[in-house]
Amino acid sequence: MTKIEERIKRVNENITQACEKTGRDASEVKMVIVTKSAELDVIKEVINLGLTEFGENRVQQLKKVAANIEEYFEGSENNNKKIKWHLIGHLQRNKVRQVLHLCKLIHSLDTLRLAEEINTAGAKLNLKADVLLQVNTSEEPQKYGVPVGAAIHLAEQIVTMPNITLCGLMTMAPLTKDKNVIRRCFVRARELFEEIRGERIVGPEFTELSMGMSNDYEEAVEEGATILRIGSAIFSG
Ligand SMILES: *Cc1c(COP(=O)(O)O)cnc(C)c1O
Fold this sequence. Notes:
The protein has nine helices and nine strands. It is of the alpha/beta class. Helix 6 (148-158) packs parallel to helix 7. The protein binds pyridoxal-5'-phosphate.
């Protein structure tokens, strides 16, 4: 077994354990592999292991890596058409058009103006963009994400837009060793998720809760995450 295989196996085992602890089915939890710090050769290795969902936090990097991967697998039996890209980092409005057709899911919608830009670009490209609303549950002022108190109103505005599908929420816990602080952010996100769903302002596609990274994915699973975004636990152990 290679190092990468071992790390993926360990992460999967930890996810399974966290699921068992809380009575969840492991099939409810999906892992997005965050490639931002990884060498191309290592990314190819992960793809060859059968993983298909990848995330980048910058538009430029996503475009570059996606193009490299596509070129590498062109004509090979490994069907890279199955690879799906997630944009997980802050999205500037002037980059929307470059990235919309490349992304399966945008995790970082956090303002009305960005939503309007995505909706307009989606109409021009004749597509419906799948997005998550990023919520600032840690209340750190320097963080991206809509404040918790403004999230429902923004969700109501987004669901009126014909070229956007609101698929759920995303949040990031603060960088801290204090697991209680981290867990509180995840709980806040889950409660908001349930509140938005309960009020029926969103459609049946509102199913995803993207939270948990290398340092806190077990807590995220325990608190209800459906998508984990994991980079360093796989690429730098
Ligand atoms: C980098 C990044 C991750 C992955 O972080 P790791 O700690 O390497 O797992 C997840 N989400 C976002 C938004 C990121 O920028």
